Amino acid sequence: MTVFIDFAAGEFDAGTQFWSAITGYELSDSRGEHAEFATLVPPAGDAYLRVQRLGEGFTRLHLDVHVDDPRAVAGRAVGLGAEIVDASQPGHVVLHSPAGVVFCLVAAFTGTVPPAAGWPRGQHSRLDQLCLDVPQAEYDAEVEFWQALLGGEWKVRRADPLATRMADGGALELRLQPSMLAPETNGHLHLATDDRVAEVERLVALGARKRVDRGSWTLLEAVGGLAICVVDDPDGGDCTR
């Protein structure tokens, strides 16, 4: 799995600069018919974060699921409750899940996970999880959909509840959690770090706004409006340690 940050046109420049700065990944040259796409390229390992300037619409995230046969898997996804949005491009199918999550089925890709980035105050961090906040009424069906579509190893906690697909050698975990407040499903990224205080201060200095502070995580508003959650991780998001 890889993830796209889709920016509203007026938020693209500032937003891409912010995400490049917090990850330490260099923004590639633009590509696409309207120069609307770019990649955040880590200094080591393979890219798993990309950006897009939207022609219309608001800033959001979408997930790319890498599979051997996108059209065949699209048919299976429809059988599980997804709807096809666009299948006009070879090897690329855009769908939305039963709860409205936009995702793309694209060609299979196996890469090397980038190590965590180190920062001047000694902390390390890496974006390591995409979290979907799903309206509570749709949560159970949405979890069932993603479990059936993706397979792999899942950790499910009923008490909270939470459902997490483990990275299984990839760069990103996928986490679903129910929301009593959100009228529709939204996504945000988790930034794992071994020093949350220092990391939050770094993000605030880059333009983020701190919104909520809890025992093991801090929620911020990123430049461009997306939420980002800084979470405690003794390895700082470095799965190679």
3D structure, described in words:
The protein is built from 4 helices and 17 strands. It is an alpha+beta fold and 241 residues long. A hairpin with a 4-residue loop joins strand 11 and strand 12. The protein is globular. The chain starts with a strand and ends in a 9-residue tail after the last strand.
How are the elements arranged and paired?
Layout: E1 2-7, H1 12-23, E2 26-27, E3 37-41, E4 49-53, E5 60-67, H2 70-79, E6 83-89, E7 92-96, E8 102-107, E9 117-118, E10 124-135, H3 136-150, E11 154-157, E12 162-165, E13 173-179, E14 186-193, H4 196-205, E15 209-213, E16 217-221, E17 227-232
Parallel strand pairs: 1-4, 5-8, 10-13, 14-17
Antiparallel strand pairs: 1-5, 2-3, 3-4, 6-7, 7-8, 9-10, 10-14, 11-12, 12-13, 15-16, 16-17
Structural class: alpha+beta
| Residues in helices, as a percent range | 10-25%
CATH class of the largest domain reads Alpha Beta
**What is the mean predicted local confidence, pLDDT?**
94
When the domains are counted, the total is: 2
Radius of gyration: 17 Å
Poorly predicted ranges:
none
List the helices and strands in order: EHEEEEHEEEEEHEEEEHEEE
Number of strands: 17
Could you state the CATH homologous superfamily of the largest domain?
2,3-Dihydroxybiphenyl 1,2-Dioxygenase, domain 1
**What is the CATH architecture descriptor of the largest domain?**
Roll
Q: Determine the strand fraction and express it as a percent band.
A: 35-45%
